[in-house]
Amino acid sequence: MTTHGDEATNRPDEMGGQARSSGVGADELRAQFQAQDRQGFAEDSRREARRARGVYAVLAGLVAVICLVLTAVRLVGGDVVGAWVALYAVGAALSGWGFVLARVGRTRWAMAVTCIGGALAGIGDSAAFR
């Protein structure tokens, strides 16, 4: 049994070896650990949210730009204006809206809106509209 200050501890360590002493009580250590854990968890959570917003914003912006570029390429190529223009325009608009949603933190909605916009642009690019 070893003593340190007013506390006496006689606990074997994790390997079953000699007893170890500590000047800090178990409750105090637990409180310090939990406070540190919450602080680290909050920081990690903020970092992940920021990263998700950035990824979804880039994805939505990329889909919107692709829709606009494909519209320009098809118009310059001499394709007849038709339903595909409307589908590309709606796809670009929805993807632009997805960009805005991602920037304000609504990442689930941003992903859903961007996927719908990309799907509509894909339908507009199908052989049925050529």
Flag low-confidence runs.
none
How far apart are the termini?
87 Å
Element pattern in H and E: EEEEHHH
Count of DSSP helices? 3
What sort of overall outline do the alpha carbons produce when their principal axes are compared? rod-shaped
Integer average pLDDT: 82
| Beta-strand percent range | 5-15%
Q: Largest sheet, if any? A: 2 strands, antiparallel
Q: Which value, in Å, is the CA radius of gyration?
A: 29 Å
Q: Strand arrangement, largest sheet?
A: 1-2
Question: Approximately how much helix is present in the residues?
Answer: 55-70%
SS class: mainly alpha
Give me the count of strands.
4
Could you write a compact summary of the structure shown?
This protein is mainly alpha-helical and 130 residues long. The protein is built from three helices and four strands, in the order E-E-E-E-H-H-H.
List the main descriptive attributes of the protein structure presented here:
two-stranded antiparallel ribbon; 130 residues; two-stranded antiparallel sheet; mainly alpha
Question: How would you describe the overall organization of this protein?
Answer:
With 130 residues, the protein is mostly helical. 69% of the residues lie in helices and 8% in strands. It is built from 3 helices and 4 strands. The chain has helices at 26-76, 83-103, 107-124; strands at 2-4, 7-9, 11-12, 19-20. Strands 1-2 form a two-stranded antiparallel ribbon. Strands 3-4 form a two-stranded antiparallel sheet. Helix 1 packs antiparallel against helix 2 (83-103), helix 1 (26-76) runs parallel beside helix 3 and helix 2 runs antiparallel to helix 3 (107-124). The model has no long low-confidence stretch (mean pLDDT 82).
